[in-house]
Amino acid sequence: MAESSYSDLIAKHYNYTGKFRKTQQDSGLKADSVVFIIVCCFIILENVLVLTTIWRTKKFHKPMYYFIGNLALSDLLAGVVYTANILLSGANTYKLTPTQWFFREGSMFVALAASVFSLLAIAIERHLTMLKMKLHNSGNTCRVFLLISTVWMIAAVLGGLPVMGWNCIRSMAQCSTVLPLYHKTYILFCTTVFSVILMAIVVLYARIYALVRTRSRKLVFRKVSNGRSSSGANSKSSEKSLALLKTVIIVLSCFIACWAPLFILLLLDVACETLRCPILYKAEWFLALAVLNSAMNPLIYTLTSNEMRRAFLKTLMCCTACFRPRSKFTGPLVGAEFSRSKSDNSSHPNREEAESTAANVMSSS
């Protein structure tokens, strides 16, 4: 097929769904597009810092942190592909072939699907940790990387289904308004999958909170039975339960607030007839909100953990120090480095191993 026929095909679909005039008017970057690109740069930067923190900190080479690292990788990819999506949108849309168009939109689906699946994997890992009351050892590393590979494989298949044939090129009446070359049944399928994952994440975190509260009460009861004072134990247990509840509420609230509007819009896209729902032409704002979840994830899953927060800030300071101009006189730093290493050597190396498993789960939450 000739290049003009390719562009005519895309223009034909956009014209049928009512998006042709709107995209033709979008010549050049608008102010909101520039803001979105700046946000994407922030997403890329913070997720690079998370990955660097996990890579350079040996005690984070554990299954839970591998899942958090995978989440950071998928969020980083979301920032990259959304930037590319913005730059290739507007009038540039009609310069693309259908295959290029499918890759432009499919890459967004892959990145966002990988992010959602990673959130589910983290919830499953935390739930298993609570059930077994121990953090998984390094012997399960193969299982972890197998699960991570499965996450990316499923995300790639899900995003690649339209280019494999599940599209509306030969049935224009079934075309989506938000994504004019996508079949409405594919949109419905993806929305259903993501909605099921959302419900699964909510159920898992509710179970985690219930398990923590139950075991905290049992621990308090044992201390009372042994004749110890219950006031301090009750207070500490309540504080831990409240801290976990806050984390769970933050995780679920951000996830639902960022993703639910896009799910509702896509369901509306499936239900509405062509040219009947004007809100469908504002889909970029709903997608931007979903991408914003990729900016929130590092803050939630990294900075709510004391250990991760300290390591993250240390990495950030190291990175900023690399860009500072070095002084010619470095003599005093030798003494400072000696005193710091002496102080570090005097600390207890096995202090972290002495902490209880429940506390580890709390800090990772």
Automatic annotation (TrEMBL):
Family annotation (Pfam families): 7tm_1 (PF00001)
Task: Cite the G-protein coupled receptors family 1 profile domain residue spans from the record.
Answer: 46-301
Which cysteines pair up through disulfides? They are 168-175, 272-277
Region ranges (Disordered): 337-365
**Keywords from the named record:** Cell membrane, Disulfide bond, G-protein coupled receptor, Glycoprotein, Membrane, Receptor, Transducer, Transmembrane, Transmembrane helix
Q: Which PANTHER family match?
A: G-PROTEIN COUPLED RECEPTOR
Protein name per its UniProtKB record: Sphingosine 1-phosphate receptor 1
Recorded source organism is Betta splendens (Siamese fighting fish)
The gene for this chain is s1pr1
